[in-house]
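Table S7 (text form). Paired inputs.
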Amino acid sequence: MKNFFLNPIIVISLIIATTFSCASNDDISIPDLDKDNPTDVEANTELLAITDLFTGNVIEFDQVQNGGELVTSGFIISSDVSSNINNQIYIQDKTEDATSGLVIDVELDNIFLTHGIGREVLIKLNGLGMKKVGNELHIGVYNDGAITPISGDDFQDFVIRTNTKETIVPKILTINKILEAANSDEPLPTILVSIENVQIIDEQLNTTYANVDNSSDVDKTLINCTDEDTQTIILQNSGLSTFKALPFPTEQGTITAILSKNKLIIRDTNDIDFTEERCIDDSVLLYEDFQDITDTSSAINLDGWENVNISNPELLIRWKAKKTGDNIFAEIAKGGPSDKYQAWLITKEIQIQNSRTLKVNLNINVNSRNIDNLQIFIVDSVTGDDINFSEANEIDDIVPLENTDDFITKEATITIPDDLDSFRIGFRYNKEIGGANTEYQIDNIVISEE
């Protein structure tokens, strides 16, 4: 009988190969996995108590704890497996019926390999801080009043995964519930949600998840199919995602997604289960996302729309198309300190169909606010610079009275006067003489039957 002896280097290589071939993706580690479930670190503060600390200013956790150790915990609900989410980890406080959630900003790729969905993590907050972007809380390294992503070298010093991994049960919501909360003083937290009976709007049928030829984010508008609730919500897809060139499903069904700044973000295409026959989408009377505008260096000029500056027509200040990445939106900026005018952006004519009670949804961003200049009205008709409307038909509670830091979704119910068979929606920027600095951006305008 012959004796066979393996080279020691080969033996070691085989052991390593076997170890990794038997491990699941979630167990393939970044360095130093002996920090899993450490005996010397325990959570001492619930995540909800941490998020409740935010009152409007950047939080420095060292000052909150006065030098003591502050540790919280949460369950991961995000994944960068398809690159739709990048350099961020979303966590919520509980696996089911979550009441709190936030985002950890990190300088890491392929996080899903070691920190998969459902994994519990401990967050050592000393040295970190918290800020709000829109209505979403972010934590990262605190540095002289700024919050920056946690570096790859420091990641495991702050974010420690435990041996606990659970199934995340999304909170079942309706678009109506999300919008109601968004328009209240208590918007819903950043958590995993599920919405049933939704589909993409007719105007975006036969499109891909995002743009094939660039890396910009793309908004898709989803509408609810139920008769009593035909409101819409934005699904934001990254141009970095591996599925960006795939056709978006045309059927209706259920979406599971992270609720982020009143928008939805999916982890991968498995989060969309649209397999049922499409419902008839005849409730949307107007939809405008400004994406068809090709000239973003001049005033907005859309078919049937009016973009006029009255009171001082010689001023060149108009609503302009602006572009960030690949997203195009409408913007009105401040004028000079001695300027006085009204700059109107007015939609094309909208015909009354089955109901006079309608929903107005839009995305809006407010920057550098010091005076509230923007009002939105139901407009009867427009002839040149003659705008026929009543101040009594202002659409209330839709323009934020604060800086928003990013686009947020706002919604309002309107009733069209009985004497009108058609109407328009007018956005009036009313500039009085003085130092008004407020800048408004609007996007994704949807007028639909209630």
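Next pair, protein 2 of 2.
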Amino acid sequence: MRADAARNLDKILGTAARLLAADPTVSMATIASEAGVDRRTVYRQFDSREALLAAIYKARYDAVELAFEAARLTEAPVTVALHRYAEGIIAATRQWPVAFDQMAADPATAARRRELGDRLDTFIRRAVDEDLFRADLPHGWLEGLLRQVIKVAAEDVPHLTPAQAADLAITTLLNGIGRV
């Protein structure tokens, strides 16, 4: 792919992700206009709205997979891996702000999500085994809480860097919000 075509593709995908997160019904023409490209450029890259959405979902999960790899969930000390994971997921969520309910219908994305969920479950079991997390909580509780704390950190404190937001998320997860 030529450099200008790659730049256009990045602009289209980034703009589309941002606009679709705000309004899932946004038109291809609006996406093209906001990306600073001709509508025909969008249709040359993506023959349908579904193809554009699939490309956004792929880009998001590519970024999520990179976050998983950078976290080194099986090798790094568990607290280091947890922070790296949170920071990477926060950055990926901010870069690709599409909601899961938008992605759930795409079979390839759903399969990737399951695979990454299995990897996260394995890490959470490791964190429990190493006494970072409590062992007496119901199955799924830790993963759900971790996902929600990271989601809030990614979406609701945009003035913080991903590293700062990860610090806040992990500190809150590990220490709670109450004064005990």
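The radius of gyration is 18 Å.
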